[in-house]
Amino acid sequence: MSEAKRLAAEKAIEYVEDGMIVGVGTGSTVAYFIDALAKIQHRIKGAVSSSDQSTARLKQHGIEVLELNHTGNLSLYVDGADECDGNKNLIKGGGAALTREKIIAEASERFVCIIDPSKQVKVLGKFPLPVEVIPMACSLVARRIMDMTGGQPTWREGVVTDNGNVILDIHHLEITDPVKLERELNQLPGVVAVGLFARRPADVVIIGGEPPIVI
Length: 215
Ligand code: 5RP
Known about the structure:
Layout: H1 2-12, E1 21-24, H2 28-39, E2 46-49, H3 52-60, H4 68-71, E3 74-79, E4 83-84, E5 90-91, H5 98-107, E6 108-115, E7 129-133, H6 138-149, E8 152-155, E9 166-171, H7 178-186, E10 191-194, E11 196-197, E12 204-207, E13 213-214
Helix pairs in contact: 1-2
This protein binds ribulose-5-phosphate (5RP).
């Protein structure tokens, strides 16, 4: 699958225009995108990063990393996903970077999602849905999630997010109304962000292959 990830990532370079500040997601597919971006870095002003991991890779390549508070809205955000349905709704957060990813997606005019074919699904939920939670609310939120969804939340052991929080992964969901579930989970006190990107889905999805498919 890594070849498919690379092909998707390289196709996404076509969306980068001269002088842009590019929003950059997190993960192994995005790592290929950063490597490709490095080759045209003279054409861009810099990047806004969604994680310490992506920041380190961007800086290794000499790409300037800027603060979203200073850049204002972005024209382009490129990120991967764990699952993608036919309406470009996504599950994200396998890399625990969902909150900053969601912030940058919200700030961006165009969200280009880069995936390998295994990420395509009819109904979201086979991949456990990540939720970032304030540590003291972890048990409370887990109990509420069980009552609300019937899913099984598990604490992602040993993981602390870049924001100092924990991750619950909700297993055994079949997400037929992703916008509703995203809204409901977001309202639980202690939830920082939900890894459902349905209220703000991707605008473009690139599925890696020879040739890549753009939908
Ligand atoms: C990180 C993410 C990633 O985009 C998602 O986990 C996909 O990762 P990969 O490209 O390594 O398959 O949401 O929080």
